[in-house]
Amino acid sequence: MNRPDLSPEQLDAFRQELDQLRADTLADLGETDARYIRRVRAAVQGSAIAGRGLLMFGVGPVSWIAGIAALAHAKILENMELGHNILHGQYDWMNDPSLHSRTYSWDMACAPENWRKAHNIEHHNHTNILGKDEDYGYGMFRLDPKQRWKPSYLIQPLSYLMLAANFQWGIAIQDLKLGRWLKGRVSTRRMRVLAKPFLKKAGSQVFKDYVLFPALAFWQFPRVLLGNLIANGIRNVWTNAVIFCGHFTADAQLFTIRETRDECRGGWYLRQILGSSNLEGGRWFHMLTGNLSHQIEHHLFPDMPARRYAEIAPKVRAICEKYGVHYNTGGFWKQYGSVMWRILRHAFPSKRQAAPAA
């Protein structure tokens, strides 16, 4: 897709309209938003109790499958609509320690402090900038001709399947930047310090899912252990698919450091829109994605409660149309299919020479 050639005056007007939309929406936050997030938390707790109960005390394959489904549902909803959004500070205004970004601990292996740095700060500020946004390709995938091709990319379709099945672990170690340690750029002593939050959080998560709950089931130990493993796998595959659809679809654009060197606030907004992709669906679909199905709105306003994205999406789209900015949206299978095609296509060399990152 071509990028709109907006004048400085147009970019500033574009920025003002989006700023006003954000201000109006945040000014309207209140008890309705607080009740919503508490209801989601109650739904997560109920689904988790039902799932673990069916796994621990159920008999036969039907209760086992139902238990896995309920537990996977709880984990997906907790990670996407609770954890991700709370850790963005979307509900800090409530002054509820159990829903505050600095005190919330989600049901996955990634340490919240590692995630806030790698995701909130680095990814959201440098979205889709080659050489600065480590979420673009996660250091494993080539998704655009601007990225220089290496023989190791030939196995990226297989690498993708492995990452999808173990996605919580990929997220958990991302901020450690293990590649720098392996290349000798970070000392082992420093890596031990950096790894402490990860080891603590990952250790407690492994103990809970694969030791504590299976042990509490006594003779049902294998049933619960395998059920927890499958529920985590379902959560991993779903969250991976949603997140990859956010920035790697056919129309999601990649930027170089040179292109963004003198970027103004309006240009930042523009990059967030052009580098992001939305997914179309109903209310329950949006909830299970943590409203990352509204990735464009999320990247414009990451600290806005995600339940508001569906409300403001038509207004954002209208602003984009007014200024000739492409608003990338489509059904899940269309968008995810284009992601899979990019992973497959760019595993091989391109005819076009890769551009330098800076």
From TrEMBL:
<dbReference type="GO" id="GO:0006629">
    <property type="term" value="P:lipid metabolic process"/>
</dbReference>
<dbReference type="InterPro" id="IPR005804">
    <property type="entry name" value="FA_desaturase_dom"/>
</dbReference>
<feature type="domain" description="Fatty acid desaturase">
    <location>
        <begin position="64"/>
        <end position="329"/>
    </location>
</feature>
<dbReference type="InterPro" id="IPR012171">
    <property type="entry name" value="Fatty_acid_desaturase"/>
</dbReference>
<dbReference type="Pfam" id="PF00487">
    <property type="entry name" value="FA_desaturase"/>
</dbReference>
<dbReference type="GO" id="GO:0016717">
    <property type="term" value="F:oxidoreductase activity, acting on paired donors, with oxidation of a pair of donors resulting in the reduction of molecular oxygen to two molecules of water"/>
</dbReference>
<dbReference type="GO" id="GO:0016020">
    <property type="term" value="C:membrane"/>
</dbReference>
<protein>
    <submittedName>
        <fullName>Acyl-CoA desaturase</fullName>
    </submittedName>
</protein>
